[in-house]
Amino acid sequence: MKYLLVIAVVLVAFWVWRNNRQQERGQVQRQTSRPPTAPTSPVRMVACLHCGTHLPETDAVAGARGVYCNRDHLRREEPSS
């Protein structure tokens, strides 16, 4: 009787291992089947004139003398006349 139990445990373990391998293969195939995405173009980085922090140009606040990382720095460096 104990041999039947050992055989049953081995068969269940083999079945679980086999199903996990098939699922991993399916995930790898799904991942590789996606078309490659085009690389994005690099974003130009600029430095804040007040604190020197580098940030993407699209996030910068433009002033008369240059660019700043936020409106507070713009206000401090270029007070309105």
How does this model look, in words?
The mean pLDDT is 85. The chain has 2 domains: 1-37; 45-77. The strands form 2 sheets. A two-stranded antiparallel ribbon has the order 1-2. Strands 3-4 form a two-stranded antiparallel sheet. The protein contains 2 helices and 4 strands. The chain is rod-shaped and about 90 Å long. By secondary structure, the protein is an alpha+beta fold. The longest helix is centred in the first third of the chain and has 32 residues, at 2-33. InterPro entries: PP0621-like. This is PP0621 family protein.
Q: Which descriptors would you attach to this protein?
A:
two-stranded antiparallel ribbon; 2 domains; PP0621 family protein; 2 helices; alpha+beta; 81 residues; PP0621-like
SSE topology:
Layout: H1 2-33, E1 45-47, E2 54-56, E3 61-62, E4 67-68, H2 71-77
Antiparallel strand pairs: 1-2, 3-4
Helix content: 40-55%
Task: Provide the domain count.
Answer: 2
Supply Rg: 30 Å
The quaternary state of the protein chains shown equals single chain
Q: Overall 3D geometry?
A: rod-shaped
H/E series: HEEEEH
Strand order of the largest sheet: 1-2
User: Mean of the pLDDT scores?
Assistant: 85
